[in-house]
Amino acid sequence: AELALNPGIVAQDGFLTTHVMESIRLPERELIAEYLGRPDDEILCPTPAQKLLFGPKRRRIPVGWDVDNARMLGTVQNQESYMQSVAAQRPYFFDHIPALTDLAMQEFAELTGRTYQRVMATNAAAEYLIVGQGSVIANAEAVADYLKKTRGLQIGVVNLLMFRPFPADLLGPILKGRRGVTVLERVDQPLAADQPLMREIRSTLSQCLENSSDPGAFPACPAIRPDEMPRLYSGSFGLGSRDLQPGDIIGAIENMLPGGRRERKFYLSIDFIKDKPQSPKEEIANDQLREHYPDLARLSVKGSENPNLMPEGSITVRIHSIGGWGAMATGKNLTMTLAELLDFHVKANPRYGSEKKGQPTTYYLAVAPEPIAVNCEFHFVDAVLSPDPHVFSHSNPLAGLRKGGVFIIQSDRENPEEVWKSIPSYYQKVILKNEIRVFFLDAFKIARSEASDAELQYRMQGMAFQGAFFQATRELAIFAEKKLTESSLFVTIEHKLNQKFGSKGRRIVEDNLRVVLRGYQESHDLGVRLAIPGSDIAPALEAARKLPIMLKTLPQSKDKISDIHHFWEETGMFYRAGNPGTLPASPAMAISAIPASTGVFKDMTEIRFEVPQWLAERCTGCGHCWTACPDTAIPG
Description:
Blueprint: H1 14-19, E1 21-22, H2 29-36, E2 42-44, H3 48-54, E3 57-59, H4 79-92, H5 97-112, E4 119-122, E5 128-132, H6 136-151, E6 155-160, H7 168-175, E7 180-185, H8 196-213, E8 231-236, H9 246-256, E9 265-268, H10 280-292, E10 300-301, E11 315-322, H11 327-342, E12 345-351, E13 360-368, E14 381-386, E15 401-410, H12 416-422, H13 425-433, E16 437-441, H14 443-450, H15 457-472, H16 477-481, H17 486-501, H18 506-521, E17 524-525, H19 539-544, H20 564-576, H21 587-590
Helix pairs in contact: 6-9, 7-8, 11-15, 11-17, 14-15, 14-18, 15-18, 17-18
């Protein structure tokens, strides 16, 4: 931007900045300062147009205006001159951007050893390519490596590092002669013939095709014959931060391979038609949609598998908590403690919506001896921590927990038998089948007794779970390999607590350290138990199939858009079962229709530990009122 004197945009996601953790290695500030230079440096003008404006040299950041050299830039113009202004920007400024970008990237590589290009590709000679931008690239590269190892498939991944000016000169040669190209975009542009990236790619290939019959028509592009044109496939994903799993990318690849469905436009990670309806009413709704939209199911593409692509030797954890209970702080502290103890790479992020406060939240964290490529929710975990004692009623906390993994749950019951009885029989069977080691502790009791501030009691219980995690996993081979001792563990924990809370005073650090220590000491192994006979249906799913008590009192409406019962069947029950991600894309969702009284779906007593009891007596005076009156001695 500085060399070309062209405005640029830097976009940064606020949520990702504050909540997502990932290992990065930043160049030294002095190195970056050397690369960027000072605003008042005098540099050679890099283009003829700049030389005509400034002379042979200019200030690195030109001064737009000062009191000794008054002038106006970017003025409002009338019909006579506006078009000249806009048209002149292309040859004199815009057309220089690609070459100046290449120069800037070359200088950065010489200074840091880190090479960047406007288009970057791995295995670009492969017959089938995935094209995208941003975080999907790391996922696609990990999937491509996996498919090469397991199936012998050669899949190339193309990263469009620059969008404007569109790098047609670099992309055209890569696409020429490919058999299939799938373009993945985090957008679904309403009413457009194609998504933004796909439009640019079609334009590039069209120019290449025109060059075959009119050589040199578009000098930046190679000539492509009609038989060298690749088949193009367009996939939308990740709208609203929707999770993208490796299996979704496998689906996009399988779609364009020989024998694949060859859908030209599709969506990843959502359903329009449910493969396995959960109720007769849902099956009827599916049949109605199929009748009117027979090709609807083709809009959704899925992979034949969803593999675990975490690096060997990694430790992956999922935390189930409630918004406002400190799960973010717990996850971050545990991540950074593991990273320092093991000298591992990290990746961690929470998942919750705008309704976070008082609602279930999930936190994912992983540490590994090598960089973690995948950017997604972790479906395969080594340990699950659940400060939420009611987690079984709305989620499946054991989903994806590996055989022999660790499950740690909050419980105020004092003996293992009572804790085991509190676990639904469905999950008891899962625990026994998968040889899951279960630990329990009363983290809230610990926090209540140790927190010096009443407002911190809910938030500090997560610190007790950090201690419980290290108690439950202390036999892991990696800890033995790193020669981890209780002493070195708590030295590191205290160091991390100082980094996070030190500015708030030593008392806060010591409070948290005591909670972690007690969590370590007061977590108990449930041991092996016998399954109690009971339902073979997960409690959350069983509850979701039943109408909420308050919903039964509400009448049905002939208008489906305002019918609370229809909304429960199509939307509410999926949230109640802890599976909002399995919601089908329906006509009602297309208009974001929500009827009144949806509050009856949620029973907030799940997050309460203490429920006040109302004690009252009729007063001894009049015998009618329930509060104090002048004739009674009973206080109101």
